Amino acid sequence: MNGTTTLRDPLDIMVQLLSYEGKQNPYPLYEEMRAHGPLVDVGGAHVFVTGHAECAKALREPALLLSTDDAVQDQRLPGWREHASWRWLTRNMLFSNDPRHERLRRFFGNAFSAQRVVALREMVDRLSTDAVEHLAQAGADGGTVDLVGEFSFRYAIGVIGELLGIPPEDQPGMRADIGAITLALDPIGDLGVLVPGDQAMERFAEYFYALVARLRAAPGPDMTSGWIRAMGDGGEITEEELVANLMLLLVAATEAPMDLISNTVRLAVEHPDHHDGLRTDPEFTAGFVDESFRFDPAVQALNRVASRDFEFFGLPVAQGTPLTLLIAAGNRDPRRFTDPGVFDPTRRDNQPLTLSAGSHYCLGAALARMSVESMLPRLFDRLPGLALAKGASFRDQIVQRGHDRLPVTVK
Ligand code: HEM
C-alpha cells in the first residue's frame, strides 16, 4: 500500500449506477462520484454535479435551461419526434422554457398555491383516512400486503384524481401507464424502451380529450372544469396544452408522491422511537417529511443544458453542454449536512433539493407535504403494529426512484 487511492472513472461509476443493482442502492456510488469533487467535468462533454450549493445554484442559473426545447431535444435524443411520449412531454410546462413556461405556469399555478392548498386540507384528511382504512382491511387477516399498491398508489392518485375530476373507478387501472411514462425520464440508450410509454401516453391523451369534453358539457367542482372555464374566458392556452398539462399533473402528482409515501412509511417503521412524535406533534412530523425528502428522494437527478458559454464555480462550460444534477448526492453533501448518512428528523435548516428550485420549483410542493403530513398520524394511530415483511425492492429506474414492492403486515 502506498497510501494513494485510485478514483474510478466517472463514466464507469455512471454505468454501475444505471445497472439494476446500482439502482437498488445508489448512495455509495454517489459518494464515489463525490470523491471527484462537487463538479465532475467529463472531458468538457458532460458535467455531473454532486455538491448541494452547486446543485442549488444550477437550478437558479439563467444560463442553464431545463434542456428540452425541440432543438435541444434533437441533439440530446435524435429520433424523439417518432415517440408519442416525448412529443407530448415537450408540450407540458416542465419541459418548456420561457416564454411558454411562464405562460403555462401562470395558468395552472394558482390552483396549487400554498393558500389554495390549505383549503384542500379537509379533502386530503378524508382521503388519507380512507387510504389507512383500506390498508387496515387489506391486512386484517394478518397476511402480507404490498404497501405500494394497496396504500401509496391508491392514496396519491386518489388526491390528484379528485382534484382533476378523474372518477375513482378509472384510477386503479392507471398505475402501469403512469409508471411507463416516467421511464422516459431515465437516460435512454435504445429508443425502443419508450414504446410502452408512447402507448400509455396515447391512451391518456384520448382519455383526457374525452374527460375535457365531458366536463365542458357538465362542469364539476374540480380544477379541470375551472381551467376549461378560464379558457372560455380568454385564458391563453390551447386545448392541446390543456391535455398535455393534465397528463403532466396526473403523472407528477401520482408517481413521486407514491414513492415519497412508501419511503416515508418505511423510514417511520424502521425508527419506532419516532412514532409518538408522528402521532402527536405536527411540527416533528413536518421535519420528518423534510428529512425523508433529503435522505431517500423520489427524484434523484435533474437535467440541464447550457444555453450559452459561461463559467460555473470557475469551470468553463460551453454552450450545449449537458449537466446532470445529482440532487440525491447533493442532499448528502457533508459540506452542507452534519452526518449526512444519518436519518435525523430533528435537523434544523434542512432544505433538501428534492423539489427542485428556481422557475421549475415543484408546483405540487405544498400539496405533497400536506398529503404526507395528514397521513402519518392517522397511519400510526390506526395501525401501531405496522411492520415490514420480506421482499422489498426498488424499480429498475434512477431519475424517479421508488419501491415497486414494499410488503408489510399491519397487526
Ligand atoms: C414527493 C412528491 C414530489 C416530488 C419529489 C416532486 C418533484 C419535482 C421536481 C424535482 C420538479 C422539477 C424538475 C426540474 O426542475 O427539472 C417538479 C416539478 C413539477 N411538479 Fe413535482 N414533485 C412532487 C409532487 C408533485 C405534486 C403532488 C404535483 C401536483 C401538482 C407536482 C407537479 C409538478 C409540476 C406541474 C412540475 C413542473 C413545474 C414547472 O415546470 O414549472 N409535483 N416536481
UniProtKB/TrEMBL annotation:
Pfam families cross-referenced by the UniProt entry: p450
Recorded superkingdom: Bacteria
Transmembrane segments: none
Gene3D superfamilies: Cytochrome P450
InterPro entries the UniProt entry points to: Cyt_P450 (IPR001128), Cyt_P450_B (IPR002397), Cyt_P450_sf (IPR036396)
Family: Belongs to the cytochrome P450 family.
UniProt xrefs under PANTHER family: BIOTIN BIOSYNTHESIS CYTOCHROME P450, P450, PUTATIVE (EUROFUNG)-RELATED
Protein name listed in UniProt: Cytochrome P450
Organism annotation: Streptomyces ureilyticus
Lineage: Bacteria, Bacillati, Actinomycetota, Actinomycetes, Kitasatosporales
